[in-house]
Design brief:
The chain is an alpha/beta fold. The chain contains 18 helices and 14 strands. It has helices spanning 3-12, 14-34, 55-75, 79-89, 95-99, 122-144, 173-198, 205-209, 240-254, 275-287, 305-309, 317-321, 327-330, 351-355, 358-370, 386-391, 408-420, 479-502; strands spanning 39-49, 102-106, 112-119, 154-160, 216-221, 263-268, 293-297, 332-334, 339-342, 373-377, 396-402, 425-433, 444-449, 455-459.
Amino acid sequence: MDFSDYLRVLRRNWILLVSVTLAGLLFAAAVSIFVKPTYKSDTQLFVAIQNSGSVSELQQGNTFSQARVQSYVKTVRTPVVLQPAIQNLGLDVTADQLAEKVTATTDLNTVLINISVEDNSPVQAAAIAQAIANSLVTAVDTLERPKAGESSPVSLSIIRPATAPPSPASPNMRLNLSIGLLLGLLVGVTAAVLRTTIDSRIRGEEDIRSLTDVPVLGGIAFDQQANTRPLLTQARHQSPRAESFRQLRTNLSFANVSGPAPTVLVTSSLPGEGKTTTAINLSIALAQTGQRVCLIDADLRRPMIDDYLGLERSAGLTTALVGQSDVFDLLQPWGADELFILTSGQIPPNPSELLGSREMQSLLRRLEGSFDTVVVDAPPLLPVTDAAVLAQHVGGALVVVGSQRVRQQHLKRALGSLELVGANVMGLVLNRLPSKGPDAYSYTYYSYESKGGSSVKDHEHSNNQGPDSPPVEGVHTSPSDADDTRDGFASRLARRRAAENSR
């Protein structure tokens, strides 16, 4: 992972990062508030040699003092020094218990001794520090005094008496909050990285690029309104939703699938990624350019196109495959453009066999001869083999990827199944993308005024939602318009049949 990848991880998990950091701050604040404060009082002593001789003797005495200071520092926490202090103050502790509160140090190459005492009371801390300093002076004088009764050659003097501290030494609120902030931030970043590493769900285009070289032909943003208004005709012409499908339509042309007799199979790895609504809206977008488009509902297990478009399903693809009716008699016109729908028909007991049959191949070839583009809505790849079987007989496959719905291993297996049968995978369509954030689709369009006068910032996102949304009432042409379209198409079919019979 490079620096940009880490930034993306942090942007994806910013809520987790902020939450953990705030938790660290709150914990540090709670510790600082509820922990009993401790006060620290310091005193300092000077060690000297009682010698008034020459300069050379003074230098030797100074060296002697520095050597002895280390011993005096260790003596501070012994009962010889602490017990007299306890008796003088009337403390109800032992010498060992008091030693835990006392710290004695010395600076390098000096004859200074620093004594620090910590206590819950500032006055008590100062009193104990002063008592220990006085006791050390007495103890050293006794220990260094010669046996002959002469005075001690070493003299200790208190040069900084102990005073009661005005504020506690701990807890240090500012220091604790700083530590809590840094620890919280560190834990948050670690949790974000671990979460991203463990979570294999596909969230955006970067996840696709790290997994496969198959191009991403379009991105469709999540929109709650698409659950009740999933069709492209239900959105404004210059809405982000419409623009995303026009961009997908354009990218398909650059993928060389709009040549002679193109057939596009639309599928996904798992159910609920939005393949059906993508197939429908792509067909509408293609028809809006003046192309003759046929949309086939080849999901013979869970057909949904008839529910979305408000069409009859009793006779359709399976009716044609078993030879009960000619396929051109089963096509149903939809909308004001030349868009014709072949619904699934009755659900058969052997979908895979029907979709892989010669009759299905012949049906596709006949439709390719009459339409500019044929769009096939196929079942998901992983639960059943229908889409993989059908992908062998079409010009190319378009795989819909539901953001945060499918995992990397699922998409890899789905693409592998298409590769195994030699299918032409034209590209991927990312669905249910966030409209903002690091995983939003990268292209942005200009702002313009809608017919109602409101400004709309158009992104290359569609409002088509991933799960094949609950069926809604279709928006199609009036009966008179449908009849005109059907009559025109019927006349073209009649001429084609006459030409075929003449051969």
